[in-house]
Specification:
Strand content of chain B: 5-15%
Number of strands of chain A: 0
Order of helices and strands of chain A: HHH
Order of helices and strands of chain B: HHEHEHEHEHEEHHEHEHHHEHHEEH
Oligomer: heterodimer
Strand order of the largest sheet of chain B: 4-6-5-10-11-9-7-8
Strand content of chain A: under 5%
Shape of chain B: globular
Helix content of chain B: 25-40%
Largest sheet of chain A: none
Helix content of chain A: 40-55%
Number of strands of chain B: 11
Number of helices of chain B: 15
Radius of gyration of chain B: 20 Å
Largest sheet of chain B: 8 strands, mixed
């Protein structure tokens, strides 16, 4: 997902049960857009079997020096 | 021993009380005296509880006279960020919405400090719902930097940074979700420890983002932080995410040498676009660490911008989920900036949020691989010293998010990885504002960053400087 349009934001906010006006939708799109663009190279590329709990496994990886 | 007990470090004053060289009552009076002097300038306290604190101190003295010592903090007065629930007391969380919220249970971290004998002095100011990096608070006013009034403290643990720097409390709990302990430590010139995610129980601490929130101390020294972490760390039945990983001997770690330790300096990102004073402080810190026996080498870290973006996505969505009911029922009771940031999550799909969570383990594994040759990584906490309260008062304006992201640029990636990071004072800017560096360690290895921080503090005196009353 890259930077959403204000129309995208309006539809998502409506679906989330927290509708916003047009001005707010535009502001949200501009505000969170850079984070979504920054994450775009990762989004859609992760291997099938990777799940969030892999983080806890990584926390306990043994480190070799 | 200082003639003004409030100027002592936490470990010094705890020892002095235990050895009956000072009473808890006179120590508490010393803190209250400084609070009375400084509070009108700083706005660091949310609530000052003078009479109950003096009574609790007298009780602690009476117990000690009978030979009963509760623990390593017996009779030490402390105040904490106003988001740690304490049964029967108000925890405003820096908000209008919770202005009158009386907690019915006590946070595990706070309870463990109470069990060690700490005396409650009051509560400390914070950003509304811990969602702001500057120290502004639209409901209770900005907290000021004791080194220069009119300059920010950093947030969200704004009162914690300001009060510890001005020596109004010997230490304070903060919380760090995107930099909220490390930034006040940097801007106010104190030592702050962001712990590994899961190291300290979050039970009874106001949530912001359950995957990123960490509970940790701000204090004068690495040794003080080590004392507090040792008391708080470990599993907790009230918080299943509190890890069972072994708790290290943090105080012993602060007495270790740097010889044989390798410290990495990032080749990019954390050294790019630094204010000249921050760059100078980084170079000087590296030189001191080398002199003290550490080997310093360059490291190539994975793309930190992607980590930062993932961190923002996780934070935004989890925060909005906690706040959704109030977003629907009481949007007018948020400040414009906090409302704006909570609304940002409405543009993030559930799939994108879960992708950011799924990537976290792989990102941490990549970081571990990139830093396998070093024990810790050193980096600035922020590219700049404290800006003024006025210039960073961006509210919900069009440039607000950009200002927030610039301030937190070097802290957010570490929250996403969940690594420990010790922020410690390393100098002052030409205009007299503090500058800190952060030592980023390995998961559940707070001991190593405390070793390095303590060795640096034995060789320097930046942490011992005290601001003067305006």
């Amino acid at each position: 997902m890259t930077k959403p349009t204000p129309q995208n934001v309006s539809a998502m906010a409506e679906a989330a049960g927290v509708p916003v006006d047009k001005e707010t939708a535009t502001r949200i799109a501009n505000s969170i857009g850079p984070a979504l663009e920054g994450f775009a190279p990762i989004a859609g590329t992760l291997p099938f079997d990777l799940e969030p709990a892999s983080y806890v496994v990584a926390q306990h990886l043994k480190v070799a020096r | 021993m200082s003639s003004e007990p409030a100027l002592m470090t936490l470990t010094e004053v705890a020892t002095a009380i235990a050895e009956k060289k000072l009473s808890s009552h006179e120590v508490t009076r010393s803190c209250l005296h400084r609070i009375a002097q400084w509070q009108p300038h700083l706005n660091a306290f949310m609530a000052i509880e003078s009479e109950p604190a003096l009574k609790a101190a007298a009780d602690a003295d009476a117990e000690l006279a009978k030979g009963n010592i509760k623990g390593p903090l017996h009779g030490v007065p402390l105040a904490h960020k106003d988001m740690y629930y304490d049964a029967g007391h108000v925890s405003t969380c820096g908000s209008l919405i919770r202005r009158d919220f009386v907690a019915t249970s006590t946070s595990t971290a706070l309870q463990r400090l109470k069990d060690a004998g700490a005396v409650r002095l009051g509560t400390l100011q914070m950003a509304e719902f811990a969602y702001g990096p500057t120290g502004h608070n639209a409901h209770y006013g900005p907290v000021h930097n004791p080194w220069k009034l009119g300059y920010i403290t950093g947030g969200s643990s704004s009162g914690s940074g300001s009060a510890v720097a001005a020596r109004l409390t010997f230490a304070a709990l903060g919380s760090d979700t995107g930099g909220s302990i490390r930034m006040p430590a940097h801007f106010c010139g104190v030592t702050g420890l962001k712990v590994t995610w899961g190291r300290v129980s979050r039970a009874g601490a106001m949530p912001l983002s359950q995957s990123l929130d960490t509970v940790g101390p701000l204090a004068q020294t690495a040794e003080d932080c080590a004392l507090l972490l040792g008391l708080m760390a470990g599993p907790d039945p009230e918080d299943p995410t509190a890890s069972t990983a072994p708790v290290q001997d943090y105080l012993a770690a602060t007495r270790a040498s740097l010889k044989g330790l390798n410290i990495g300096v990032p080749k990019s990102f954390y050294v790019d676009d630094l204010d000249a004073d921050v760059a100078k402080a980084l170079d000087a810190t590296i030189a001191t660490l080398k002199t003290e026996g550490a080997d310093v080498v360059q490291v190539e870290l994975p793309d930190q911008r992607q980590l930062s973006s993932a961190s923002q996505i996780v934070l935004a969505v989890e925060a909005a989920a906690f706040h959704k009911r109030w977003l629907i029922e009481r949007p007018q009771d948020y400040s414009p900036q906090v409302l704006m940031r909570l609304q940002n999550a409405l543009a993030v799909s559930g799939v994108t949020y879960l992708e950011a969570m799924r990537w976290r383990g792989a990102a941490l594994a990549a970081h571990i691989a990139a830093t396998s040759g070093v024990d810790a990584v050193i980096a600035p906490v922020s590219p700049i010293p404290a800006p003024t309260v006025a210039e960073s008062d961006v509210g919900a304006g069009p440039g607000a998010e950009a200002v927030i992201q610039r301030l937190t640029r070097f802290t957010r990636p570490i929250n996403y990885l969940g690594l420990p990071s010790l922020a410690f004072p390393t100098g002052f800017s030409a205009s007299g504002l503090p500058i800190a560096m952060q030592l980023i360690g390995r998961s559940f290895d707070e001991a190593t960053v405390l070793t390095i921080g303590a060795a640096f503090q034995r060789a320097t005196d930046f942490h011992a400087k005290v601001p003067t009353l305006p």
